[in-house]
Structure formats: C-alpha cells, structure tokens
Amino acid sequence: MPSDTPSRLRLAWRLSAPFWRTRAARPAWALLIAVLGLSLGSVWLNVRFNAWNNDFYTALQARDGDAFAHQLLRFSLLAVSFIAVTVYQRYLNQRLQIRWRAWMSHQLLSRWLDKGIQYRLQLLADTTGIDNPDQRIADDLRLFVDTTLSLGVGLLNAIVTLASFAGILWVLSGDATLPGGIVVPGFMLWAALIYSAAGAWVTHRLGRSLTPLNAEQQRREADFRFGLVRAREHAEAIALGRDEAAERRRLDTAFERVQDNWMRLIGRIKRLTWFSSGYGQLAIIFPFLAAAPRYFSGGIALGGLMQTAQAFDQVQGACSWFVSAYTELAEWFATIDRLAGFEQALATAREDMAHSTIVQHADADMLHIDHLSTRRPDGVPLSDLAAMSIAPGERVLVSGPSGAGKSTLLRALAGLWPHGDGIIHMPAAGPLMFLPQQPYLPVGALHDWLRMDDDTVDEAAMREALLAVNLGALGAALNEARDWDKALSPGEQQRLAFTRVLLRRPRWLFLDEATSALDEATETRLYHLLDTRLPDTAVISVGHRSSLRRFHPRQIVLGQAALIPPADAYPAVPTTSS
C-alpha cells in the first residue's frame, strides 16, 4: 500500500460519512444490512459446499450410488440458494449505489452551483489545480460509490471467509513433521498464510505506481473529452473559420497525452498481471502438493483431500484479497484524491468569497459604493471608482475603452469578482437581475426557462412578453424541448433574455452588453419597453455604442462619474410584432 494509505482512508470516511448520518440514509441502511447479510450467507453456503466436497468425493471413491444421488440433490439445493443470494446481493447493492450516489451528487451540485461558486472556482483554477468539475461529479462520484461498496463488501467477505475456513483448514491439515523433527500443527493453514503474505508483498512492489498513473489517466481523459465538447459547441465558428485542421491537431495532441499515459499504465498492469496470473494458477495446485503426502500415506481419503484443497483455496483467497483488489484499490485511491481535491476547492472558493477584499452588504435602499477598485487576477489595475450612489429608477450607462474593466465592475457588483478592494452597499429591497452579453439557454422546454421557478407566471404572460420583443413566433413553441442555444441566433437570444426581464420585473437591472447583437431599431424598442413597463427599475448598462447614451441620463466613464444631459425623447416605436 502507498505510505499515505491511512490519510486516504480518512478522506474516504470524510466523503462517505455525511450520507450515512442523514435521515435520508435510513432506507440505505436497510439495503446495506441486506447486502451484508447476503454476503455472509454466501460465505455460509461456501462452508456447506466445502463439507459437500468431502461427502461427494467420498461417495465417488466408495462407488456408493445412493450416496452419490443424495449428494447431487444436496448440490442442487445449495446451487439454487447460491444463485438466489448472488442475484439479490448484486441487485440490492446496485439499488444502494444509486441511492448513495444520488445524495452525494445532489450535495456536490448544490455546493458547486451556489451563489457563483462555480465561477469563483474557475478563477481559482490555477491555485487549486482543479480541472473538469463535470467529470468529478459524474464519473469520479460514480466510481467512488461503486468501488467503496465493492471493496467494503469484498473485505468483509474475506474476513468472514478467513474466520470460517481457518478452523476447518486447521482441523483438516493435521500435523506436519519438518526436517529436524519439528512438528507443525495446522500445516496447511500456515502455508496458506505465508503464501498470501508473500503474494501481497510482491504485488505491492509491482503495483505501487498505479495510483498516480490512474489519477493522471482520469485527468487526461477528462481534458480530451472537454476538448471534444468544446469542438461540438463551437462547430459553427470552427466551420466558418476553416479551423478544422487546427482543431483536429489540438484534439490529436490531447489524445496523444491520453495514449502516452495509458501506455505507461498498461505497462505497470502487465507486470502485475504476469505475477497475479501465475500466483493464481499456482494456488490451484499448491494445496494438492502440500496435502499429497498425507493422502498417499492413507492419512486422508479422496474426499478429505478435496475438502482440504477447497478450504485452502478459501483461506488463501481471503488472505489474498489485497492481491486481487490491488488494481481496484489503486483506482479507488485516485478517485478519492480527485473528489477530496474537488471538495477542498469548493471550500476554498467559499472561503475566498467570505474573505474577499471587496466587501458587499445588502443593507441599503440604493446602490452605494465606497471607493471600489478592481484588478485582474495577475494584479494589474482595472477600474477605480470613488464614492458614488445610484438611486432606484435611475438609468446609468457604464462606458470606457475595451479592457478597462466595465464587465468586471458588474461582476464585482454581483459578488463574483474577488480581485480588488472596496465596500459595496447593495439594495436590500426588490429582486436584482443581471443579463450577460451571451445568455445561457439550457436544453429543455422554453416555458421552464422563462418561468424562472416562478409558478405564478402563466403561458399567456409569456406569449405577450415574447410578442413585445418581436419573438411572437416562439409562443407556439413554449412546450417544445430543444437546444435553444443552437436554435436561436445571438440577437434572438438577447431578445429572449429581455423577455425574462419583462416577466420578472426586477427592481434593479444590470445589463452587460446585453444588446450588442441587435440593430439600433431593436435596441431602441427594448429600452423603450424598459422605460414604459419598468419605470421604477434602476437600469445599469455596460456598453460601447454611442446610441446607448440617449437611454441613460447618467454616464459613468471608468474612474469618474459624470451626469450626461437627458437625450431627446425616444423615437416612436411600433407596438405590434414585425
């Protein structure tokens, strides 16, 4: 075992224990007890099979037909029982797996998708070394639950098997006299223990590098899969830019990294397999060689020889659990490292948010900033705002040159950006809503996305809002599950985001280049809707276009706050769908 095995076992306990302490785990406890009971039942059946071996082969040696038929009947009953135990043990084990995995998945997803933690985790990627959170939640969690149960039940089975068959083998072995007249009681039991200990030592020497190689393999596989997903999501841009060859080279490089580590991994596995296969084959004949002197001297009959060999096999198999499970243990340790690292990264991200030098309070009736400065992660200064306030219902435009930190300012207001200093007093009343330049449209029914978990929003209101932003045709597709991110153009997606604004009616609205994909006429229409339907909503817009100035009486140019005279009256905007 690796030298840090105890710490990994503590990590495994830390990952596992929370589930088993909850009320939701009560059915899982029943399933676990049933699985363990069936495992013990299989050991008991193996003990019965061991006794049957003696009786069956003794009947064969004595050419006793009635006894032979009776033993066949016994075997049939034992075999049917063993099959039933095996089937239900696996079935109940799998039910337990999905229950445990479902709880852990829910917990990790809740912590990951909580108040910007997933975004903060991206910012901390270089510090935490955490990559591919999707793989850790989907694959690593599944492997952890599956392997933990498999190894746990297997270890218990090995311990009970050893306890059950050690006494049997001790009795069957008799005494063996070694050269020099040394009498060894229970010779076969000692032989099994020594054989297993030697196998475990050699296995560890050959396979101790498997854990880091498995961890690296999981990481490289995830990187390759992530590259494939990105190529799929950006298929149009790749095709339009004729970047297929460059993308193929990137993916080929990622796969070569997978292949290189895989070759190192299978090289280690090959060495381990050479030994474990030879070890297993020798274990078949070893008990017969050890017991042959007693059999040929007449000390035991054929049935006793077969029972001794089978008992030796059970004891040796139980003691060799480490040998047979070594590869699985290496994968398990790698999975524990990745999951524990992910949990630690989540905790670090939460702590980073709690101790951010940009302090945010939701205690004001307006938006008030006490000197806010933002920086890039590498420390390069971005924006620097003196004390300023924005009142409810104000329209404010944040402008400035590209790269000056306009979007970063909104991230700081949203509580997502940790790099900087200052105090922000956010409004305590009314919902706040942030619209990014590229809205997020999940795959599914459109009405679920528009509703935003508010059951009071009905489909009639959705259709009216869609009509107002010139997307009336989508009213007939509210219940259709599609990949709307691919089905709609960037401009349509931005108009759809404004539909949510009209439905939710926030008191504070923050727009980050939210009309950048629209023509000026459509942009004018959307801002006119905000002016007429949400007159009490404060609108803070980030944008480059000079056309935005007429919709915002006040303008903030990074580093200074200046009042801009109100623009001329808004031009008339049609109210019917075009």
Helical amount among residues, as a percent range?
55-70%
Number of helices: 19
Structural class: alpha/beta
The first-to-last residue Cα distance is 71 Å
CATH topology of the largest domain: ABC transporter transmembrane region fold
Number of strands: 15
How would you describe this structure to a colleague?
The protein is an alpha/beta fold and 578 residues long. The protein folds into 2 domains: 5-353, ABC transporter transmembrane region fold, CATH 1.20.1560; 358-563, Rossmann fold (3-Layer(aba) Sandwich), CATH 3.40.50.300. Helices cover 63% and strands 12% of the residues. It has a 6-stranded mixed beta sheet with strand order 9-12-13-7-14-15, sandwiched between helices. Strands 3, 4, 5, 6 and 8 form a 5-stranded mixed beta sheet that branches. The longest helix is centred in the middle third of the chain and has 53 residues, at 244-296. It is elongated.
